[in-house]
Amino acid sequence: MRECGILLPIASLPSKYGIGAFSREAYEFVDQLKEAGQSYWQILPLGPTGYGDSPYQSFSAFAGNPYFIDLEQLIKEGLLTKQECRKSDFGEDNTHIDYGKLYESRFLLLKKAFLRWKSQMEDQNIHIDILFGRELIEETRNYCFYAALKCYFKAASWIQWDRDIRLRKEEAIKEYKKFLAEEIQFYEFQQLMFLKQWRKLKDYANKKGIRFIGDIPIYVAFDSADSWSHPELFQFDEENMPKAVAGCPPDAFSATGQLWGNPLYDWEYHKATGFNWWMQRMKYSFELYDVVRVDHFRGFDEYYAIPAEEETAVNGTWEKGPGIKLFETMRETFGQVNIIAEDLGFLTPSVHKLLDETGFPGMKVLQFAFSTGERSTYLPYFYDHNCIVYPGTHDNDTVRGWYETMDEDEKQFTREYLNNVHTPEEEISWDFIRLAVASVADLAVVPLQDYLCIGKEGRINTPSTLGGNWTWRMKEGEFTPEIRKRCRKLNAVYGRCPEN
Questions:
Q1: Residues of the chain by 3-state class (helix, strand, coil), percent to 5
Q2: 3-state class of 378 per DSSP?
Q3: Active-site residue, selected from the candidate residues 295, 302, 328, 410
Q4: If we measure between CA atoms, which residue out of 9, 8, 26 comes closest to residue 200?
Q5: DSSP state of 309
Q6: How far apart are the C-alpha atoms of 188 and 78, rounded to whole Å?
Q7: Distance between CA 340 and CA 292 in Å, rounded?
Q8: Long-range contacts of 89-93 (CB under 8 A, 24+ apart)
Q9: Which helix (H) or strand (E) element contains residue 436?
Q10: Set 28, 98, 290, 395: catalytic member
Q11: Domain boundaries in the chain?
């Protein structure tokens, strides 16, 4: 089937109270997707974010971001009042997210909601620990314990906690769980509300014929419940400090490479356990999403290991990853799986072989196709149907912003390829949308900003930079009926509407 979708982070919805959420606007966007002839809504990772606000550096691979909980729904349930929400300061600019204001306001409101909810449960003789045990998986509850500890230690990374709890001594775990019992319940309440609201939204979307493409990073953050709860999964020493960390080597874009700092997996341990932790992670992801996009697919073939004491990525080495065995175990566990492999960048023959063996569709990005003097394999005439084509991703500039910065030779090649004679620059993104949906790729996914013809101000993320990322939001009513009609017509012409 030829299908199409739109990429829009949940955070970018025009919901009230400072950030996009599982709110009325999310349900309206589902309706708009259907009207525009779409089959997929692609989002970014849903986990709770930490320093830098990146959804790819989450505090847990098994938890949801409490910022996405719809406060309006909590008002309807009698857990908050409209006055309490309106009095909170979420920042004045509704086109961008102010994470500092959000952090200061959101948790105060959620704590009020939790205490009222807890009182309601007590009035109904409902034992909330039994409820949490039934509704939340063990790894999610591990995150809630970790989050309560992190709050107690004034947001410090777990590596800076007192040694007994940092190393998870049995007596320390018992004492802290008792001491922080209510705070742990507060975080469990957040996860309960997150799952309840997300499942309701997903069910609504699925019934409308819209499926979710979710995104999981290959690595977890060092400051996360995952690395604290399960040090045996990673290349740590006896003090649970990393021996080596993740990154990528020097290239044309960076003379010193990229030092990501994520802990590296001890793949031999994972193999010995039948990849048990990974199977739990994928089970959680398959329950959240209809399709899972796995970031940095190359790392499953070979990964770049940088000694932990290094200050740059220059002195790293390539090491073997788990290879096809991980994905064979996945198929044995789950059967046929819906996975998209993020296979961008320089790929070795062994990565191509691994992708072929899995049968997963890879990614094609049109912005990578138009470099002077090259005939890039990202040009559509090289595509096989088993791939996903994007004009750009969340890590790229918008098409308009990118095109405006191209040199004249690149623009000339682009215009010749597109047979672009009359399109004004402010409408150039529609030529790339047409190129994507006209291609043989099974699925075409377009960032919403490109349908809106937004320039560089609509960029979601600039890799290897800190600050100013992950903040863009769509304005109320910006995805107009006229744009949706144009979108549907284009998709219908190229056989991508659901009725085709």
A1: 45, 15, 40
A2: coil
A3: 295
A4: 26
A5: T
A6: 19
A7: 6
A8: 90/17, 90/18, 90/19, 91/18
A9: helix 428-438
A10: 395
A11: 3-493
Pick the catalytic residue from 25, 215, 301, 342. Answer: 342
CB 62 within 8 A of CB 71: no
Active site residue 123: no
To the query of whether residue 442 is one of the catalytic residues in this protein, the response is no
Do residues 341 and 358 make contact, with C-beta atoms less than 8 angstroms apart? yes
Distance in angstroms (rounded) separating the CA atoms of residues 443 and 40: 9
pLDDT tens digits in sequence order for the chain, 500 residues long = 899 999 999 999 999 999 999 999 999 999 999 999 999 999 999 999 988 899 999 999 999 999 999 999 999 999 999 999 999 999 888 899 999 999 999 999 999 999 999 999 999 999 999 999 999 999 999 999 999 999 999 999 999 999 999 999 999 999 999 999 999 999 999 999 999 999 999 999 999 999 999 999 999 999 999 999 999 999 999 999 999 999 989 876 678 988 999 999 999 999 999 999 999 999 999 999 999 999 999 999 999 999 999 999 999 999 999 999 999 999 999 999 999 999 988 789 999 999 999 999 999 999 999 976 667 889 999 999 999 999 999 999 999 999 999 998 889 889 999 987 778 889 999 999 999 999 999 999 999 999 999 999 999 999 878 888 999 999 999 999 999 999 999 999 999 998 76
Q: How many CB atoms lie within 10 A of CB 128?
A: 16
Per DSSP bridges, beta strands 258-263 and 40-42 are unpaired
Indicate the SS3 state at residue 311: coil
**Residue 203 is among the residues annotated as catalytic for this protein:** no
One-letter identity of residue 499: E
pTM over 0.70: yes
Superfamily designation of domain 3-493: Glycosidases (3.20.20.80)
Among the residues of 68-169, which ranges form H helices?
A: 71-76, 82-87, 99-123, 128-135, 138-152, 163-166
